[in-house]
Specification:
5 strands; globular
Length: 572
């Protein structure tokens, strides 16, 4: 990994045997990171969006031959691909799949694990694609640094642990850019058409993937050696290729036209103008502003501060040393940056399409440093890669860890509560737990730990988050008494809503009273995890401590005073 030898427009030298070995090592590392604890939450818990939009369609196709999507929010390529893989797996292994819309069956958990494995394979293929793209833009040595930085990209690693449309979308987007760069370097119109088609497949995996088409579109509009009419014909040709690809890929949902249009309108409206609590710009701090959130929260959390800072420096270096490469990168990223940065809905994974290009800019800079001063360059690259690998590893260790610990605490409370009820002549009595709202618990991997035969879960009353409801803190205390709540489980993602200013006034009053102990409950235990230099990332937004889509959260457990006393006596 030492130089940026090749210049765009020249043929790329074949990778040496040693370089191929380095690439293999990077791919193995990337695969291993993404496969670590891949079975989190299974078999009891499957992330709700994954279950509804991917696992269920795949199970139905394999078990019943039902290839009609009855529910969808994203384009159909990925659920259909997973359905085909699941059907093949079922046929080859002789596995009979039992479809369940409620609690997942054992075979549903197998389908979910298979879907996660498919995502890991696609994510690892994306690392190879990023290498090929970086090699075309800046040369083999820069591409190896690029692949290394992307292989350990924190959010891409974590998002690979769940079934989602972002992973195939990013793979198609990277392959589209790769074909576009080849088309530019070799003046190959056929490659340009392939780039249009692959960009459309990215959009048919997730709607935001359509932004992959900005690079081939820019190349068509600026194609060298042609007058404006020839460029217009090339652009129209690319548009026709995209249109035909889109119709073919989207046909399963386009046939249900009214529902498709309604979903697209809803997604655009929510993403650009409304957002949702904890995933939008509704916080009180100055950082909850368009573009500022992306620059100071999203991108640092996405790739880590060192890679991001190296990428910024790499952009400056490219402006002087590799202007054509920078122009291609800008065409692939700036339109997406402008629209996504202007959206109301914002969470780190929405910025994933920028990660490959940040890695390329950082990798190019490190390779240039290695070319001029080898030892200094290797030290800089090693520090960036080493820190990012530790950062990613520290986040991986958090997967499902807090749920296991909190679950053990709940089981112990259930035993003490049962013994206390017997002493008081109440017979067998389940531990009654209060949790913030069902629409949050269905996405929380702690659900099977706190919702079982020994417990009974009650959800916070809706008037807590309804600012117009004429309720007071005394009404909430009465609700706790009326439902004989023994323990209150507060997940970190709910607590973080208050920390970023997204609580209603009533929720804030309730939470403050709960912490103060004035509601008759005291803090029993806190089950949190942290990652390397967490304060470098959550200083602007506390919600980055949690990645509940991949089973990472924290919990506080409050217990009623009488139960807390019984726990103290038992422990004593």
């Amino acid at each position: 990994m030492g130089s940026t030898a090749e210049h765009p427009g020249h043929s790329v030298e074949p990778a040496s045997y040693r370089q191929r070995l380095v690439l293999c090592a990077i791919l193995i590392l990337g695969f291993a990171l993404r496969a670590f604890r891949l079975g989190w939450g299974l078999p009891e818990f499957i992330f709700n969006d994954s279950r509804i939009y991917f696992v269920l369609p795949a199970a139905r196709a394999a078990a019943q031959g039902d290839w009609v999507l009855d529910r969808f929010v994203q384009p159909p390529i990925y659920p259909y691909a997973l359905s085909v893989v699941t059907a093949l797996w079922s046929s080859l292994t002789g596995t009979t799949i039992e479809v369940s819309t409620g609690d997942p069956t054992a075979s549903m958990a197998q389908v979910a694990l298979l879907g996660r494995l498919v995502n890991v394979v696609l994510a690892t293929a994306t690392i190879a694609g990023v290498y090929l793209l970086g090699r075309r833009l800046l040369g083999t040595r820069a591409a190896l640094w690029t692949a290394a930085f992307f292989a350990i990209c924190p959010i891409h690693v974590l998002e690979s642990h769940r079934i989602n449309a972002d992973t195939p979308m990013l793979l198609f987007a990277v392959l589209s850019s790769h074909q576009a760069v080849i088309a530019s370097q070799e003046s190959n119109r056929r490659r340009l058409m392939w780039s249009f088609a692959l960009a459309t497949l990215a959009g048919a995996s997730k709607y935001s993937g359509l932004f992959a088409g900005t690079l081939p579109l820019w190349l068509a509009l600026t194609w060298p050696g042609d007058d404006w009419s020839q460029r217009a014909r090339l652009t129209v040709r690319g548009g026709l290729v995209s249109l035909l690809t889109l119709i073919a890929a989207m046909s399963p949902v386009l046939l249900n036209w009214e529902r498709f249009v309604a979903h697209v309108e809803t997604l655009v409206y929510i993403s650009l103008f409304v957002g949702s609590r904890g995933n939008d710009l509704s916080g009180d701090s100055w950082v909850y502003a368009r573009y500022l959130y992306m620059l100071f929260v999203g991108l640092p959390h996405l790739v880590g501060w060192p890679v991001l800072l190296a990428a910024v420096a790499g952009i400056v270096w490219l402006a002087f040393a590799q202007r054509r490469a920078l122009a291609l990168i800008a065409a692939a990223t700036v339109p997406f940056f402008l629209l996504q940065g202007a959206a109301e809905a914002t969470t780190t994974r929405y910025f994933l399409p920028l990660a490959p290009y940040l890695a390329i800019c950082a990798g190019g800079l490190v390779a240039a440093c290695c070319e001029r001063r080898a030892i200094a360059g290797w030290m800089v690259g090693g520090l960036i890669a080493g820190y990012t690998l530790l950062l990613t590893s520290s986040q991986l260790l958090r997967i499902e860890a807090s749920q296991v610990r909190a679950g053990a605490a709940v089981r112990e409370l259930a035993v003490v509560n049962r013994d206390l009820a017997r002493r008081n002549g109440l017979g067998l009595r389940r531990l009654r737990i209060a949790y913030p709202y069902w629409d949050q618990l269905k996405y929380d991997a702690i659900r099977p730990y706190i919702s079982n035969r020994s417990t009974r879960v009650q959800y916070f009353p809706q008037y807590l988050r309804d600012a117009a409801a004429p309720k007071k803190i005394t009404d909430i205390a009465g609700w706790l008494d009326d439902n004989a709540i023994d323990a209150i489980v507060v997940p970190s993602q709910w607590e973080e809503l208050g920390q970023r200013g997204s609580f209603s006034e009533r929720e804030r009053t309730f939470y403050d009273a709960l912490n103060a102990g004035t509601l008759g409950y005291r803090l029993h235990s806190e089950h949190t995890t942290s990652f390397l230099t967490q304060s470098w990332y959550d200083w602007a937004d506390p919600t980055v401590r949690t990645l509940w889509t991949a089973g990472i959260s924290g919990y506080k457990i409050f217990v009623r005073d009488a139960l807390a006393t019984a726990v103290d006596e038992t422990e004593g």
